[in-house]
């Protein structure tokens, strides 16, 4: 009897066949296909960029090198820019997203004017304790939001979780996402993820949830897609 190939196996093999460093490439490929957030000339920031699959898809989405654009990846791990699907427009920084200041992020953007797309594929070291993992994931999500929008854009956020409240220490000034820009945040689904959606809805032209087909069946990963920052 033929063994049915799991979704995970299928995307893993496809990634190898097409030269992507990880199957997660297909998550961003699907997001791109549905929403077309990264376009030629975009400036893209990839938070939690290891092992580099999203860098590959982001660079491909910029079109030919003459179209311009830039992709900057940041991760706790040192990430080598993949040789396939990437060109000189892609660079990586080894740093802790939680510790860098907004100014340090802005310094990485073209003309220090911010990014047109912010991707957060950050995930906590999963412990298996559902509530703890969800809280840590939320903390990373809130950090991405705070960086992208600036604390001043997040007034009186009604959050139940003290831990998350602390995360929003509201670094003053504007965020690193340009007006009209797009934000993608990965979260582990929980009661609190709805809160994040509530915060984003009035700030963007459109916000929606997506669970990409390449997500493992036992995973609680879900992506918040925010389009067109007001």
From TrEMBL:
- Print the keywords alphabetically: Methyltransferase, rRNA processing, S-adenosyl-L-methionine, Transferase
Source organism per entry reads: Mikania micrantha (bitter vine)
Q: Which family does it belong to?
A: Belongs to the class I-like SAM-binding methyltransferase superfamily. RNA methyltransferase RlmE family.
Q: Which SUPFAM superfamilies match?
A: S-adenosyl-L-methionine-dependent methyltransferases
Q: Which Pfam families match?
A: FtsJ
Signal peptide segment: none
The protein's matches in Gene3D superfamilies, at most eight in alphabetical order, are given as: Vaccinia Virus protein VP39
Which residues are responsible for catalysis? 186 (proton acceptor)
Extract the GO molecular function terms from the UniProt entry: rRNA (uridine-2'-O-)-methyltransferase activity
Question: Which residues are in the Ribosomal RNA methyltransferase FtsJ domain?
Answer: 20-228
Listed name of the protein:
rRNA methyltransferase 2, mitochondrial
Which superkingdom?
Answer: Eukaryota
Q: InterPro entries recorded for this chain?
A: RNA_methyltr_RlmE, RNA_MeTrfase_FtsJ_dom, rRNA-MeTfrase_E, SAM-dependent_MTases_sf
């Amino acid at each position: 009897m033929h063994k049915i190939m799991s979704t995970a196996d299928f995307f893993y093999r496809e990634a190898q066949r097409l030269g992507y460093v990880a199957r997660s490439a297909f998550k961003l490929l699907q997001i791109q296909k549905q929403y077309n957030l990264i376009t030629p000339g975009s400036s893209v920031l990839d938070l939690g960029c290891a092992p580099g699959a999203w860098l590959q898809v982001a660079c491909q989405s910029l079109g030919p090198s003459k179209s311009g654009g830039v992709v900057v990846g940041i991760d706790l791990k040192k990430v080598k820019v993949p040789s396939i699907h990437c060109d000189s427009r892609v660079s990586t920084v080894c740093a802790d997203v939680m510790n860098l200041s907004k100014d340090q992020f802005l310094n990485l953007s073209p003309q220090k004017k911010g990014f047109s797309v912010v991707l957060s594929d950050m995930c906590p070291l999963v412990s298996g304790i559902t509530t703890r993992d969800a809280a840590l994931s939320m903390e990373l999500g809130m950090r991405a939001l705070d960086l992208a929008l600036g604390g001043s854009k997040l007034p009186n956020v009604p959050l139940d979780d003290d831990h998350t409240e602390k995360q929003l220490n509201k670094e003053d000034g504007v965020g690193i996402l340009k007006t009209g820009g797009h934000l993608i945040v990965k979260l582990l689904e929980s009661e609190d993820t709805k809160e994040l959606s509530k915060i984003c809805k009035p700030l963007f032209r459109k916000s929606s949830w997506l669970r990409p087909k390449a997500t493992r069946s036992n995973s609680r990963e879900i992506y918040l897609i925010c389009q067109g920052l007001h």
